[in-house]
Amino acid sequence: MAALDFSRPATRAFLFCLGLVFAQSSASPAIAKEYLLTAAKPDRLFMMDMSARKIVREYKIPGPMVAPMTFLPAPDGKTVYVVTNYEKSITGIDMESGEEVFRADMAPEFDIRSKNFGLEISPDGKELYSYDVLARLHPDRYEVLEPRISVFATDGGLNAKATRTFAAPRRIHLLMMSTDGKSLYALGKDFYTFNPVTGELLNTYPFLNWTRPNMSPPDLLNFWPLWDQTMIFRSLYTVARTNLPPTDPNAFALGILSLDLKNGEMGVEELKIPPEVLFTVVTSPNLRDAFAVFTNLVKIDLESGEAVKTVELDHSYYIAQISGDGNEVYLGGTMCDIPIYAADTLEKVDQIELTGCPDMGGSPLKIIHRD
Questions:
Q1: Element (H, E) at 101
Q2: What are phi and psi of 192, to 5 degrees?
Q3: Rounded Cα–Cα distance for residues 258 and 168 (Å)
Q4: pTM for the complete prediction?
Q5: Sheet order of strands, 289-294 included
Q6: Phi and psi for 11 in degrees, rounded to 5?
């Protein structure tokens, strides 16, 4: 092969163009693809390509006595942490190999029973936060112990131990962390803010303990971490107007509790729609719309507080999730089907059935992005 003559203009031009090609290829990272995750009893975790409308991976969750409920993907989408063993253990599954790479038992002491009722991961993926409810087992009774938040290093391996613990109020059912990792929020009777390093309780936002004239304490039920696409947590609540008789159609109101995990802004807003049982609400990436679900799927205009459209569902669903472009709404959390609805019209466009029709049983729907 003849040597290149670097003195020739044509050769220099060729090399310049070749350099541009390599520079562009090295500067353009692979585009991360969006996947939907869910878990189902007794021991399955599913990863779905929603654009292709199919399940692409199915994982067996390690035992014993799995019964998955809560799970949480790492920020890089490479590992998923599942609360298992009837809320007494956390297992970490490598999404590429399917192997267990992390395991923590909530109470290794033989006379202590501890169950997880809230799970969160730090933005850098290095720490897991677990809300633990504990009891000491005596031959003739249970001794109720103080609840705590346990912190685990995600590189703790298959016999991970808490690196630190700190006290937490009772009746917590959801943990969430600010995007800068400086605040750990806990939703329970009230909304609490902790320093995730020291465990110091920084702030309490009254919720069940709020005092509003002519208003009852609100009622709220939420176990599902649904803020993937916007980093804005929203939860529905109901409240009674105590200055009106219960027979008055205006005596009860439906509202939304919200927390922006980017800046810590928190608030409540009453909706202008008749109260009905709705389990979860998810915010659209356009930040104008929200979608709530139970026996109906309801599209809510967040600016006006009014229902834009409502459609009746084939059966009840606990979870609503939304695509990154905001064009589709996914439903799940019950039975074994995940219907797909167009966000603009609420028309049902497709459906994915889980292999073998296992019961999701309250499991969340989570979004991950992988190359």
A1: strand 100-105
A2: -110, 150
A3: 21
A4: 0.88
A5: 278-283, 289-294, 296-301, 306-312
A6: -65, -45
Confidence of residue 111 (pLDDT cuts 50, 70, 90): confident
Secondary structure of residue 15 in the 3-state scheme:
helix
Residue 270 contacts by C-beta under 8 Å, 6 or more apart in sequence? 239, 253, 254, 255, 305
CA–CA distance, 48 with 59 (Å, rounded to integer): 12
In 3D, which of 220, 230, 221 has the Cα closest to residue 321? Answer: 230
CA atoms within 13 A on the CB side of 233: 24
Q: Which amino acid is at 56?
A: V
Separation between Cα atoms, residue 329 and residue 308, nearest integer Å = 15
pLDDT score of 6: 43
pLDDT tens figures, 132-186: 999 999 999 999 999 999 999 999 999 999 999 999 999 999 999 999 999 999 9
Q: For the range 246-253, what are the long-range contacts, defined as Cβ-Cβ under 8 Å and sequence gap of 24 or more?
A: 249/274
pLDDT of residue 23: 43
**Which three-class secondary structure state does DSSP give residue 259?**
strand
130 sits in the region (left: phi over 0; alpha: psi -120 to 50; else beta) called beta
14, 2 contact by CB (below 8 A) = no
77 class by beta-carbon count within 10 Å (0-12 exposed, 13-18 middle, 19+ buried)? buried
Q: Among 110, 181, 206, 196, which residue's Cα sits nearest to residue 150?
A: 196
Mean pLDDT of the chain: 89
Separation CA 307–CA 291 (nearest Å): 9
Backbone angles phi, psi at 159, to 5 degrees: -135, 50
Q: Is the omega angle on the peptide bond into residue 218 within 30 degrees of 0, that is, cis?
A: no
Burial class (CB in 10 A: 0-12, 13-18, 19+), 175: buried
> In terms of DSSP H, where are the helices of the chain?
9-27
CB 82 within 8 A of CB 94: no
Element (H, E) at 20: helix 9-27
pLDDT band for position 2 (50/70/90)? very low
